[in-house]
Amino acid sequence: MNDSNPDNHLFRSVIAEFDVILLILFFASMIVVANDYHPVAREFPVLFLKFGLAAMILELIVLILPEQYSQQIQRLTTGLAADMDSEIDLEEEDSISEGEQTAEYKTFALALGLIISFGILSIYISFLLAIPVFVFGSIYLLGSGNFANAAITTAVLLLGIYTLFGQMMNVPVSQGELIDLDPLLRTVLTIGGI
Amino acid sequence: MTLIITSTLGNLQEAIGIVLTLEMLVIITVIAIIGVILGALPGVGPALAMALFFPFTFVLPEEQGLVIMAVLYGTTAYGGSISAILINVPGTGGSAATLIDGYPMTQKGDGTKAIGISTFSSFIGAVIGLVLLALFSPILSQWTLQLGPPQIFLMAVLGLCTVSAVSGESVMKSLTAMSLGVFFASIGVDPIRARPRFTFDTLFLQSGIDLIVMLIGIFAISQALKFVLDDDEGANEAENLGGNALDGFKSVAKNKFGAIRGSLIGTIVGAIPGAGMSTANFLSYIVAINSSRNPEDFGTGKEEGVIAAETANNGSTMGALIPAMTLAIPGGAAAAVFIGVMFAYGITPGPEAFEGPLPYVVFTSVLLGDIVFLLFGLFAAKYIAKIVQLPRDVLLSGIVVLALVGSFAMRNNVLDIGAAILFGVLGFALSRRGYSLIAFILGFILAPIAEQNYQRAMLISDGDYSIFVDSWLNILLILTATFLLISPIALRLYRDQNVEVAA
C-alpha cells in the first residue's frame, strides 16, 4: 500500500483512532436515547454528552487535517503536565512490531476471558471453587506455569477469602447457583474441631 | 473564632482518646506495614490498595474502618519509593521521579542510604502536609457554609475544568473522559425528582453504579490487564545494599530547605483536583533541578533529587484531602476512593465532616501511621525488596480475586461483578488510548454534586440562569473555570508569541 497517498494516510489515521469514532457514535446514541426522558432529568447528562461529542468531533477534524496543521493543533491542545515530562529525559517506549501487537491482543483476550470466566464460575459454582480454577488458569496460561506458585497462591487466597469475606463479613463465598459448599464446609470444620 | 478553636481542641482530645488504645495502635501498626508493602508492589498504589481493602472495613466499627483507610492512604504513597530505589520500578506513579536519582544511588552501593533519605523525606512531607490539612480544612469547611447551591455547582464545574490544565495528554481526550464519567454517574435516577435515566428498564441500573465497584474496576481489574501486557524488563534484582539508613537523616537535615520546599509544593499541587502524586513528584523534582548549582548532576544519584521527589509525593497525598474532605472534590485518585469511603460511612464532605472527632481520628491515625512507616522503613525496607519481586502472575491472580470478591461484597449483587469487569476493560482501554482516568473519576464523583446543586439553584431562581452570575464569587469561579479550561491553548499561544518576538 502506498502511504504517500493522502487518501491512504487519512484512512489509516482514522482507523488508528477508532476509539474517536466509537465514542462519537456512543455519545450520539445516548443523546438520542435521552430524548425520551423528562427535560429536567436529561438536561445535565445531555449537556456533557454533547460536550464529549463536540470534543471527539474536534479530535476527528484534527486527525483529518494535513499533518503540519494537525501536529500544531495537537501541540496546543495537550495538557500542561506534558510540559513537565519534556523537561526530564524519560526513556521512550520502543515501538512494537505487528507480530508483537497480534501476540499482545491474544494475551489480552486470554486474560479477559479468564477474568470473565472467573466471574461466571463464581456465580454458578461459588467463589471458593472458582478461585483454584482461575489461579491455576492464570499462572499456567499467562504466567510461569509454576505449580508451587499456583498452589500457594490458591491456598492463601482461599483461606483469606473464606476467613475475611465468608466468616467476618458473611458474604456467601461458598454458595453458587448450582453448588452450595456450606454443608461440606460445616462438616469439615466440625471434624477439625473449629 | 474562639469557638472554633475550643471545639477543635475538644474534638482533637476526643480523637486522641479513641486512637490511643491498644487495639487501635495494633491496627495502625499492622495496616501501616501492609500499606508500605502494598505501595512497594509495582502497579498497586494507594487507590487500588484502598479500593481492595474497603469491603473488609464494612464489618468494623466506623472509627476503625476510617482509621484503616486513612493509614493505608498515608503509607502506600511512601511504599512506592522502595521499589523505585531498590529495583528500578516505581511502586506508584508518585515515585517515578524518585527513581531517576534513587536507583543510581543503589547502583553506586548507597541503596540503604537512599532508602533512609526517602523515608525521612516522606515523613517530613507527610507531616507538613498533614499540618496544613489539619489547619486549613476545618477553616475551609466552615467557609463552605456560606456557599449556596449556585456556588457549590460552580465549584464542582471548576473541579471538572482542572482536567484541562493538569492533563498530560490531549485535552480533548481528557474532557471526553470527564464527560464519560459524568454519563456513568448519571445512570440511575436524577438527584432531585428521582426520574430514571439510562436504566434501559433494568432494576440493577436503577440503583446506579456503585462508586467503589467502579473504582475497583478502574484500578484493580484494569491494572491486572496491564500486568499481563507489560513485561518485567527494567525490574532488577535488589543488589547488595550498602550505606546506613540513618545517614539519610543527615542528608535530609543538610537539605532542610529543599525538604520544606518539596513538602509545600506537594501539598499545594496535591490540593489541585486531578493533579495527583505524579504531577507533584515531577514538579518538585524540576524545581529542585532549576534551583540547583549543579543541575547536570541530577539523574546520577543526587540526594536532592530523592528529597524533592519524596517530600512532594507524600505532601501531595495530604494536600489531596483538603478539597476532598471539605468540598468532595478529589485531589487525586486515592482521594477519590477516600471520598467514596466517607460517603459509604454516611459522612458528607464539608462542614458536617468536621462536626465531632472523626476527622481528627483520621489526622491522628495518619500521623501514627507515618511514625510506623518511618521506623519500619529505616530498619526493614531493604527486606521488602525481596517481597515486591513477586511474580506478576501471582500478583494478577491475587488482585483479580480480591477485586471481584470485593465488588460482590458491596451489595451482595452478582451484577456488580460484571460491572467491575466492564469498568476494568473500560479503564484499560481509556488509559491505553490516552484518555485520563482521573478525569473520568472526577466526572463520576463531581457530577452528582454539580447536578444536585444546579437543579436546586434552578428551583430557587425559578429557572432564571442569572442566579449563577449574581455575585462576585460566582463570577470569579466562572472566570477561573474558563481560564483553566483554555489555559493549555492560551499559555502555549502566549509562549509562541514571545518566541516570535524574541526572534
Instruction: State mean pLDDT of chain A (0 to 100 scale).
Output: 82
Average predicted confidence as pLDDT of chain B? 84
Judged by helices, strands and strand pairing, the structural class of chain A is: mainly alpha
Strand pairing plus helix content of chain B: what structural class?
Answer: mainly alpha
Largest interface: which pair? Answer: A-B, 69 and 84 residues
The percent of residues in helical segments of chain B reads over 70%
Total of helices of chain B:
21
The proportion of residues forming helix of chain A, as a percent range, comes to: over 70%
Strand content of chain A: under 5%
Alpha-carbon Rg of chain B, integer: 22 Å
Give the terminus-to-terminus CA distance of chain A: 71 Å
Q: What does the oligomeric state look like here?
A: heterodimer
- Alpha-carbon distance between the two ends of chain B: 56 Å
Radius of gyration of chain A: 26 Å
Beta fraction of chain B: under 5%
Q: Biggest sheet of chain B, strands in spatial order?
A: 1-2
Low-pLDDT stretches of chain A are: none
